[in-house]
């Protein structure tokens, strides 16, 4: 059986920005525990989400690129769901509804963009900035129900974001393999280019691929400023094989603050937009397989639009 691969598009794939920070700081929403998934439960919430995603439809249309519509389900797992009053049935309902909502939008905009995929978004079991335990099988059992819901609802693939350990990444991939849904893995790094548990990014990619027989469709890095990812490129690459060839996506923070500093921040740091654009493009140039570009904390459609303005992460890369 041929392993699923992200389809090719002429100019790569646009994805969105920092959903939760946009909703909180720009739209005035209260998101307990940084959870946006409850918005899919009513018409008002779905309207807010649709307005958010349509801004990225416009970016992809202008860029002549594909579009990844990623569900607002980063917190829609057992532990975080329980804090918000969701049991297993409630989580299954909301995860399915999130996929179905974006599938309807994808169908509606099919003529406007080169291609659209609906992605089920998985978040870490614990805090996205702290390393968790090291039991991969435990994580597989934990994340499997959410992946089942995405599969039942017809998601094209799943992506696990802001993972802090190889063990959780391995668990997610194993669960996705059990369920039969393609899955991508996105690690986060600290200001030194290493995972929060101290593992060099290149080593983490090698260990994940070794443990899962390269079962992840592709890798990304998210929730870090480009300057925080850059040191990883200077690390000892570990075993033979270019780990950088596995990194297909970047979703960068606008801020240079560390994760600990961001946790304490009361004002949104939207960064220096021209500088962020330049550094994101430079980082993409250093990672030969990057074809997905978007944002994370502190970014919105303005940031992502500027990243894509006159530039593409694939083919003969060009600058404005």
List the helices and strands and how they pair.
Blueprint: E1 13-14, H1 19-26, H2 43-63, E2 66-70, H3 78-83, H4 88-108, E3 116-122, H5 136-153, E4 157-163, H6 166-179, E5 183-187, H7 201-212, E6 219-224, H8 226-229, E7 247-252, H9 259-264, H10 273-286, E8 292-295, H11 301-308
Parallel strand pairs: 1-2, 1-8, 2-3, 3-4, 4-5, 5-6, 6-7, 7-8
GO molecular function: metal ion binding; methyltransferase activity
Binding site for Zn(2+): 223, 296-297
Cofactor: Zn(2+)
Architecture overview:
This protein has 320 residues and is α/β, with parallel strands linked by helices. It has a single domain, classed as TIM Barrel (Alpha-Beta Barrel), CATH 3.20.20. It has 11 helices and 8 strands. The protein has an 8-stranded parallel beta barrel with strand order 1-2-3-4-5-6-7-8, surrounded by 5 helices. Strand 5 (183-187), helix 7 and strand 6 form a beta-alpha-beta unit. The longest helix has 21 residues, at 43-63. The model has no long low-confidence stretch (mean pLDDT 93).
What's the number of helices? 11
Low-pLDDT segments? none
Rg over CA atoms:
18 Å
| Average of pLDDT | 93
Task: Give the proportion of residues in helices.
Answer: 40-55%
User: From the helix content, strand content and strand pairing, which structural class follows?
Assistant: alpha/beta
Keywords: Metal-binding, Methyltransferase, Transferase, Zinc
InterPro entries: HCY_dom, HCY_dom_sf
EC number: 2.1.1.10
GO biological process, one term: methylation
């Amino acid at each position: 059986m041929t392993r699923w691969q992200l389809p090719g598009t002429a100019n790569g794939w646009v994805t969105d920005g920092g959903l939760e920070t946009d909703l909180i700081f720009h739209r005035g929403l209260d998101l307990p525990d940084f959870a946006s998934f409850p918005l899919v439960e009513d018409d008002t919430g779905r309207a807010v989400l649709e307005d958010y995603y349509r801004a990225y439809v416009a970016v992809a249309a202008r860029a002549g690129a594909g579009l990844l519509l990623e569900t607002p389900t980063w917190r829609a797992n057992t532990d975080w769901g329980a804090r918000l009053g969701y049991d297993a049935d409630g989580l299954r309902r909301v995860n399915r509804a999130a996929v179905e909502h974006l599938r309807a939008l994808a169908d509606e905009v099919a003529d406007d963009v080169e291609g659209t995929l609906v992605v089920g978004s998985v978040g870490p079991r614990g805090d996205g900035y702290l390393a968790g335990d090291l039991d991969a099988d435990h994580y597989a059992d934990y994340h499997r129900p959410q992946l089942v819901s995405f599969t039942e609802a017809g998601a094209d693939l799943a992506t696990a974001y802001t993972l802090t350990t190889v063990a959780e990444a391995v668990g997610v991939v194993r669960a996705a393999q059990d369920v039969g849904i393609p899955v991508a893995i996105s690690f986060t790094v600290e200001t030194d280019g290493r995972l929060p548990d101290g593992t060099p990014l290149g080593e983490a990619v090698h260990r994940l691929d070794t443990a899962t027989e390269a079962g992840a469709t592709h890798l990304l890095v998210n929730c870090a400023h480009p300057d925080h990812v850059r040191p990883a490129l200077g690390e000892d690459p570990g075993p033979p094989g270019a780990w950088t060839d596995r990194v297909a996506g970047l979703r960068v923070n606008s801020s240079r603050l560390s994760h600990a500093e961001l946790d304490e921040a009361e004002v949104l740091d939207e960064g220096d937009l021209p500088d962020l654009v330049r550094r994101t493009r430079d980082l993409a140039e250093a990672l030969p397989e990057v074809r997905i570009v978007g944002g994370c904390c502190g970014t919105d459609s303005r940031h992502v639009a500027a990243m894509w303005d006159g530039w593409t992460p694939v083919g003969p890369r060009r600058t404005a």
